[in-house]
Specification:
The complex is a heterotrimer of chains A (118), B (251) and C (131). Chain A is an all-alpha fold. Chain A has helices spanning 6-34, 48-56, 58-85, 91-115. In chain A, helix 1 crosses helix 3, helix 2 (48-56) packs across helix 3 (58-85) and helix 3 packs antiparallel against helix 4 (91-115). The longest helix of chain A has 29 residues, at 6-34. Chain B has helices at 38-49, 110-118, 140-147, 157-161, 163-167, 174-184, 192-199, 213-217, 224-241; strands at residues 6-14, 24-32, 68-71, 74-77, 91-94, 101-103, 106-107. Chain B starts with 5 loop residues before the first strand and ends in a 10-residue tail after the last helix. Chain B is an alpha+beta fold and 251 residues long. Chain B has 2 domains: 6-107, Beta-grasp domain (Ubiquitin-like (UB roll), Roll); 110-241, Alpha-helical ferredoxin (Fumarate Reductase Iron-sulfur Protein, Chain B, domain 2, Orthogonal Bundle), CATH 1.10.1060. Chain C is mostly helical and 131 residues long. Chain C has one domain (17-130): Up-down Bundle (3 helical TM bundles of succinate and fumarate reductases). In chain C, 70% of the residues lie in helices and 3% in strands. A two-stranded antiparallel sheet of chain C has the order 1-2. In chain C, a hairpin with a 2-residue loop joins strand 1 and strand 2 (101-102). The longest helix of chain C is centred in the first third of the chain and has 31 residues, at 19-49. Classes of the chains: A mainly alpha (118), B alpha+beta (251), C mainly alpha (131).
């Protein structure tokens, strides 16, 4: 019987899911609610200057890329399974759509972070 | 001390291939007492109301695994489920979900039995052993690793619970993978590599999406969801390290 | 033998048949919101690379009422993701023994949820320290 290739996508799904489970709520609260509406943090926490500085450091680049890419790969795997659960059986097309999107997002994020000018 | 006789309505999904185009519900009014199981209700129907109703049963004490059926949409053993729980509204009894109906409440078990035979459900010794070496010794902890997974009575409730099996019958399914796991983690066994040819395939552990309903409905606490999902990690590790570890890549 | 005509029932709408399946679907659908949030962040990173004016446009967009509603929903969904993630986690782990006794699933779930609370607080403190 042919060995499954699921481990690749499952590992990315697991990493993304664990990251989202551990720090997701805090990130959503900070970037989507607190900072834009001046709660808890200084209003300029996410200013252009601050975010540019974050994206210049290697730690910052890796963190931002990890969050975006792993969240996308986590979602791609689960959505791929969801579509199967809803009875959509075009297996190859669904895989290309889901994992292809995650791959595209990862490439865009990585390229942008690597080439961002100070 | 006879109370007024209680009557409960049991709707049975009938299917007689020689006369029915598709399954149809038939209603029966069954007098019952509080100690009667759904199985006894069905036996009353067969004995006094309609001898053509067909269903499987044997031990009537939740150990043979014959009487699994859908009771109000949930997979249950009919000998272990009581009519009083469904009074006064009545109940609906259907054949186990996700399996082809042969007749009335009986499903086809061919797929299950074929797959059961295919997982090598026996100890494959780690190395050849002579009688003079005596028995295997096992600590309570070593026994604990596989004991619950050996409790399976092949009732197939977990197959009725598993939507992935319903969507794709090529999936080996919860009960059989749990049994395969039972042998893989038995300290006496050395057949993991052979069994993982199936386990590490899409039809094996990777067909599972951790719905978990199988473990919910299992009447014996086997927890097939755990048996399957704990193997995804070692399957993934094996996938990524297979070219590095001694013994080389398998196919 | 020739009278056999096994009847295969449809799987259409299977997930609506039981509350357990609906909870499973809810757990899986959290992925859609995880993706949407990642896309919002991705937009932010791209706008950041396009200069100050572009990034400020993204910041302004975050302040619109729709984006607030979106993030409140996403926050609730992420919390449900955390909850359901650590609830299913015991099923993914082998049987383990701590001090001779079998490790209970509730302990694994509780530890995971606690780790999440601590990690989120840590993130909040780090960001507060940085700003």
């Amino acid at each position: 019987m042919k060995r499954s290739n699921e481990p690749i996508f499952w590992s990315l799904f697991g990493a993304g899911g664990m990251l989202a489970a551990l720090i997701g709520p805090a990130l959503v609260f900070i970037t989507g609610i607190a900072v834009p509406f001046g709660l808890v943090f200084k209003p300029d926490t996410m200013s252009y200057a601050h975010m540019l500085a974050l994206s210049q450091s290697w730690a910052g680049k890796i963190f931002i890329l990890a969050v975006i890419a792993l969240f996308l790969w986590h979602a791609a795997h689960r959505i791929h399974i969801l579509l199967h659960d809803f009875g959509i059986h075009a297996v190859t097309a669904v895989r290309i759509l889901c994992y292809g999107s995650a791959f595209a997002g990862t490439v865009v994020a990585a390229y942008t972070l690597l080439t961002i000018k100070p | 001390m006879a109370d007024t006789e209680k009557i409960i309505e049991i709707q049975v999904l009938r299917y007689r291939p020689e006369q029915d185009k598709e399954p149809v519900l038939q209603s029966y009014k069954v007098p019952f007492t509080d100690d009667m199981s759904v199985l006894q209700g069905l036996q009353y129907i067969k004995d006094f109301l309609d001898g053509t109703v067909s269903f499987r049963w044997s031990c009537r004490m939740a150990i043979c695994g014959s009487c699994g059926m859908m009771i109000d949409g949930k997979p249950k053993l009919s000998c272990k489920t009581f009519l009083r729980e469904y009074y006064p509204q009545g109940l609906k009894v259907e054949a186990l979900a996700h399996l082809p109906i042969e007749r009335d409440l009986m499903v086809s078990v061919e797929d299950f039995v074929t797959k059961l035979e295919s997982i090598k459900p026996y100890i494959i010794p780690k190395e050849p052993r002579t009688l003079e070496q005596g028995e295997y010794l096992q600590t309570p902890q070593q026994r604990d690793m596989y004991e619950q997974f050996s409790s399976c009575i092949n009732c197939m409730l977990c197959y009725a619970a598993c939507p992935q099996y319903g969507l794709n019958p090529k999936f080996t399914g919860p009960g059989i993978l749990a049994l395969m796991h039972r042998y893989n983690v038995d300290s006496r066994d050395g057949g993991q590599a052979e069994r993982n040819e199936l386990g590490y395939a899409d039809e094996g552990y990777w067909g599972c999406t951790a719905v978990g309903y199988c473990s919910e409905v299992c009447p014996k606490g086997v927890d097939p969801a755990n048996a399957i999902n704990q193997n995804k990690m070692n399957s993934a590790i094996n996938y990524f390290t297979r070219f590095i570890t001694p013994g080389g890549a398998d196919k | 033998m020739s009278n056999r005509r096994p009847y295969v029932r449809s799987m259409d709408g299977w997930w609506k048949r039981d509350a357990y399946f609906i909870r499973y679907m809810a757990r899986e659908i959290t992925a859609v919101f995880v993706a949407l949030y990642a896309i919002v962040l991705l937009f932010g990173v791209v706008r950041l690379s396009q200069g100050e004016a572009a990034f400020n446009g993204w910041l302004q967009y975050l302040k619109t009422p729709w984006m607030l509603v979106f993030h409140v929903i996403v926050l609730a969904v992420f919390c449900y993701h955390t909850w359901s993630w650590f609830n299913i986690m015991p099923k993914t782990m082998p049987i383990m023994f701590v001090g001779g006794k079998r490790l209970q699933p509730g302990v694994i779930t509780g530890t995971g949820l606690a780790a999440s609370v601590i990690a989120c607080l840590a993130v909040l403190f780090i960001v507060r320290g940085m700003s």
